[in-house]
């Protein structure tokens, strides 16, 4: 698939160049994608603008909603095919890829159902005036998405954008873009007018930067690393464009001495193992009240040791790392932890006969980790969990809030008053009490504060992010 999807059709990149696509399972090249450049981005933005000002822009909210539901149905009709594409492209276990495709369909269903339920306001003003606040599309939206949940990210970002009547230009990650390309084709088959959704593959520093800098973009959404998030936001600032950023986290699971460990332990382990730890909201810090440190660490370690890393079609707990660059980063981080003498509390298992060139990392649990160690603060974006002790509630809050991030937090305690106190004191966009939802919940508003980013996606709030109000004041005497 070495073409770009622009204006409802396949186009070879203007520069005619391609990029190799690697399978994380064995490190081999298995396909090519188009290496889109600034000229291709410009074509896509122009196509989106024409769609927004043309047929697509004239769709009623009801028509947009129906169309999104039809796209969701198309996705479900092709679930086996799409899950296979996603698993091959990302290396994630087939069962997880299938869940991701279900979530993709769910985004279209949810935002299809919501499209005609966004109402404006009527404001009481001076006598003789009527004031209506209406919500409108921004126009052309740029979506730069990462490689960890490519299918889900696509639905999460274009679902609300299209529901509100925007036209979209998507730059998927060069390491995982196959599903986006196929979904764009299915969307047009479902009836989406040409130009409403365009997909330009290519490198971040080329196609991604060109999209972020394009002067005819009205809104940018970006999910990825904090460093690139800054660059995208700078580009948006030059063009005076709003920017929604989701940049990862170092999310704490706070376990008190009265926690129900039977319930907590499998969820705590799952929240870091899922997608080989490559989840922005992975529960990557395990904070344990000191009085139960040994017991909790032992229980989590026992389960951790059972976790298997394996090939996507072998139903492993953990697949390979999605990109070679990320594999190298995770390995380097682990080497640094080991070199610094961090106690390794548990290590998962590797399936026998793994392809030698695949990007497999055995899950690792370290603990107790000193508070000033890099593993206690920085995101690994791999299957590595850091366990740290705390003394009391105040100490737990200090520790939980003590990183530069603020995305998700979880509290494990049976004490109802403590649950509510902590929910208010913990920094982040989501707090889970006796449960955890790494990456899940189409209905649940999601997003960060601090270095985790800003703006909200998912749920109804995303419809507000992807639209802008206009206040219409009428004097009639
Ligand atoms: P990245 O930020 O470089 O890539 C994310 C997206 O941005 C991709 O589509 C990429 O092509 C694009 N991009 C890259 N440079 C760009 C630029 N200059 N202008 C515009 N777009 C650009 O992420 P990465 O290097 O692939 O991963 C690095 C780290 O990012 C990981 O270790 C992890 O910590 C973090 N990450 C976070 C998430 C998340 O969900 N928050 C997802 C993926 C990666």
From TrEMBL:
Residue span(s) of domain Aldehyde dehydrogenase: 15-472
Keyword Membrane found: no
Annotated InterPro entries: Ald_DH/histidinol_DH, Ald_DH_C, Ald_DH_CS_GLU, Ald_DH_N, Aldehyde_DH_dom
Recorded GO MF terms: oxidoreductase activity, acting on the aldehyde or oxo group of donors, NAD or NADP as acceptor
Pfam entry (one): Aldedh
Name of the protein in its database record: Aldehyde dehydrogenase
Highest taxon in the source lineage: Bacteria
Entry keywords, A to Z: Oxidoreductase
Active site, UniProt feature: 246
Similarity comment: family membership: Belongs to the aldehyde dehydrogenase family.
Gene3D superfamilies for the chain: Aldehyde Dehydrogenase, Chain A, domain 1 (3.40.605.10), Aldehyde Dehydrogenase, Chain A, domain 2 (3.40.309.10)
Keyword rRNA-binding included in the entry's annotation: no
């Amino acid at each position: 698939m070495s073409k770009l999807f622009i204006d409802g059709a396949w186009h070879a990149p203007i520069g005619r160049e391609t990029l190799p696509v690697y399978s994380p399972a064995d490190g081999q090249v298995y396909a090519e994608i188009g290496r889109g450049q600034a000229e291709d981005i410009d074509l896509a933005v122009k196509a989106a603008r024409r769609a927004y000002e043309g047929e697509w822009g004239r769709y009623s909210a009801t028509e947009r909603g129906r169309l999104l539901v039809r796209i969701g149905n198309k996705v479900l009709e092709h679930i086996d095919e799409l899950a296979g594409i996603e698993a091959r492209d990302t290396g994630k276990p087939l069962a997880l890829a299938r869940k991701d495709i279900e979530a993709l369909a769910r985004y279209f269903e949810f935002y299809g159902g919501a499209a005609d339920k966004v109402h404006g306001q009527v404001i009481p003003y001076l006598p003789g005036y009527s004031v209506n606040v209406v919500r409108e599309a921004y126009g052309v939206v740029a979506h730069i998405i990462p490689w960890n949940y490519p299918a889900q990210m696509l639905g999460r970002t274009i679902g609300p954008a299209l529901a509100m009547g925007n036209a979209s230009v998507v730059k998927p990650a060069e390491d995982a873009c196959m599903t986006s390309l196929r979904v764009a084709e299915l969307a047009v088959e479902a009836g989406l007018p040409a130009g409403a959704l365009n997909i330009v593959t290519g490198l971040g520093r080329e196609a991604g930067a060109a999209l972020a800098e394009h002067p005819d973009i009205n809104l940018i959404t970006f999910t990825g690393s904090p460093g690139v998030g800054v660059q995208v936001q700078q580009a948006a600032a030059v063009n005076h464009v709003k920017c929604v950023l989701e940049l990862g986290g170092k999310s704490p699971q706070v376990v008190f001495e009265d926690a129900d460990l039977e319930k907590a332990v499998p969820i705590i382990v799952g929240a870091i193992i899922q997608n080989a730890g490559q989840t922005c909201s992975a529960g990557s810090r395990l904070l344990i009240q000191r009085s139960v440190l040994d017991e909790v660490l032992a229980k989590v370690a026992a389960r951790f040791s059972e976790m298997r890393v394996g090939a996507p079609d072998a139903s492993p707990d953990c697949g390979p790392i999605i990109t070679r660059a990320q594999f190298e980063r995770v390995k380097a981080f682990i080497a640094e932890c080991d070199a610094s003498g961090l106690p390794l509390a548990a290590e998962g298992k590797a399936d026998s006969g793994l392809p030698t060139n695949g990007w497999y990392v055995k899950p690792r649990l370290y603990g107790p980790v000193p508070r000033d160690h890099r593993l206690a603060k920085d995101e690994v974006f791999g299957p590595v969990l850091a366990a740290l002790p705390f003394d009391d509630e105040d100490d737990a809050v200090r520790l939980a809030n003590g990183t530069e991030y603020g995305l998700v937090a979880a509290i494990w305690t049976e004490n109802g008053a403590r649950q509510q106190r902590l929910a208010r004191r913990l920094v982040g966009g989501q707090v889970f009490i006796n449960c955890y939802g790494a990456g899940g919940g189409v209905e649940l508003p999601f997003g960060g504060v601090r270095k985790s980013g800003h703006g909200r996606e998912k749920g109804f709030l995303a419809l507000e992010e992807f639209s802008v109000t206009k206040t219409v004041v009428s004097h009639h005497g």
